[in-house]
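FW: tagging you since you asked about this chain on Friday. Here's the raw sequence from the shared folder, copied in full. Didn't touch anything.
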Amino acid sequence: MRSMRIRVFLSLWLVLALTAATAGLAQAQAASHLDQIGQRGVLRVGTTGDFKPFSFLNPATNEYEGHDIDAAKLLAESLGVKAQFVKTTWPTLLKGLQDDQYDIAMTGITRTLARQRVANLTHPYINVGKSPLIRAADRERFKTLADIDKPGVKIGVNPGGTNQRFVDASIKQATVLVIEKNLSIPEKIVAGEVDVMITDNVEAMLMAKQEPRLFAVEPENTYTKDDFGYLLPRDDQTWSNYVNLWLDLAKLKGDLAKLQQKWIR
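HL: got it, structure written out here
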């Protein structure tokens, strides 16, 4: 009789454990951003709007535009929803994601191990590297990082991102000026308020193309070798799997090549 009670108890315990596990799995799946986006009908996209050609808030239209803005719209279309852009900044980029202000951040984000520790970065979609933007008149003055890192040279950098981290780690003698508005730094170079901007080579080349008084120093020979990815919540593998597959298919079908042709080349 005692052994029968034990068997009954174990059977009941097993049933309860399996039920709890199944319920927990269902709850975890239901909590995925992938499901929430479909139910909401909106993909919330965190973006800074200050990093051409990836994310730019056009003051004339008050609309976001750029490579990653178009990519966000393609991602939303694949989900059958609309893209809603949420303003963020480089210093608050990760916190906004952790506070569930947006489902994904798309704004020209360098893939780093530090970011991967607290979030989840997708597969890369473009290779980049740090490069100087200077006045065209100074192209003989600033040829190397050693030329730039000298007393009296003023370097402008936007706060909170990999540009600032690179400058903080590499610049020992030049004066570093932290400037909140990233898009104002090229204007300050032209005006002579700063001498150099360290940024990703894609932005440096675009700025030099748009303003002949600016010059991108050896953008094909960058100080670092990096790539960009999109930023996702760390513990939502279902959502990460979807975005990575979407990104792989966008590469395969040529959608990303079309975006790069439109915005970068």
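FW: The chain has eleven helices and 14 strands.
HL: agreed, and The two ends are 81 Å apart (CA to CA).
FW: great, closing this out.
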